[in-house]
Amino acid sequence: MHNIFIDGKEGTTGLQIYDRLSVRNDVKIISLSEELRKDADARRECLNKADISFLCLPDAAAKEAVEMVDSPAARIIDASTAHRTSDGWIYGLPEISAERRAQIASAKRVANPGCYATGFITLVAPLVNAGIVGADYPFVCHALSGYSGAGKKGIAQYESGERSAELDSPRHYALGQHHKHLPEMVQQCGLSSAPVFSPIICDYYAGMCVCLPLHKSLMTKKYGVNALREYFAEYYVRQNYIKIVKESDIPDYLASNRIVGTNELEIYVCGSDDKITLFSVFDNLGKGASGAAVQNMNIMLGLDETTFLS
């Protein structure tokens, strides 16, 4: 039996991790009462007692929590942005390489990826790793997300009976090209500069679609759409949660919420040989947050990564 502590389980990601773990018989969740959940000494005891602790906290609080850990056996999965580009932390996207999966398995500190970053990296890292595009490729990325990605305050705003009519429409944000996921996107893909990134929040609860256009004329290796689809299929052939959609299965309309409730990520390779469009579709609360966190926990505990995950 493995002892698990969720520091910050009142937030969206923390609640989802709790729900996923509470039905399991191979882990025991260490809990704090409402009176003690913000008590530093009580949290410190739990963080050092648990085999793995999930940090579902704001960045500053996550950094403080890590400083509380002095047990050499205590392991951390941080769901915040705080440590995603930090030395000594392993970025928790096991599908990127066999080496990364092995690093996660033995890691003491794992940084859970951001949702938009997950969609971007699964598309871009394979291209850069194979030299299909250069590190200096001028990437442009558009992404749609359900409003659950905005956190508790954002969810309350969207679900309010007195909300603004503007929330009925998709809304672009991060207009100044400053978004918290950009540093990890650049680092994990080995890019020389950040992409032009345009995230869009929409009036539905969960689901995400990350869109990446490619110009064949700017690619180092001139792959057409079919060759690129075959490359992705080979790259992710042994992965449980990443599926490359066949050409015959590509729909006329691609919904961002089509696989909500799963830990899966679908990759679509569309367009023509000259102008290719890549899409990654997944649940921003699943593979983009809590599902990925539990997958990393399974790997760290030496379990089958699919344990209690759909």
TrEMBL record:
CDD domains: AGPR_2_C (cd23935), AGPR_2_N (cd17896). Its EC number is 1.2.1.38. It catalyses: N-acetyl-L-glutamate 5-semialdehyde + phosphate + NADP(+) = N-acetyl-L-glutamyl 5-phosphate + NADPH + H(+). GO terms for biological process: L-arginine biosynthetic process. Transmembrane segments: none annotated. The active site is at C115. SMART domains: Semialdhyde_dh. Keywords: Amino-acid biosynthesis, Arginine biosynthesis, Cytoplasm, NADP, Oxidoreductase. Its main location: cytoplasm. It is found in: Cytoplasm. HAMAP family: ArgC_type2. Belongs to the NAGSA dehydrogenase family. Type 2 subfamily. NCBIfam families: argC_other (TIGR01851). Catalyzes the NADPH-dependent reduction of N-acetyl-5-glutamyl phosphate to yield N-acetyl-L-glutamate 5-semialdehyde. This is N-acetyl-gamma-glutamyl-phosphate reductase. It comes from Candidatus Coproplasma avicola.
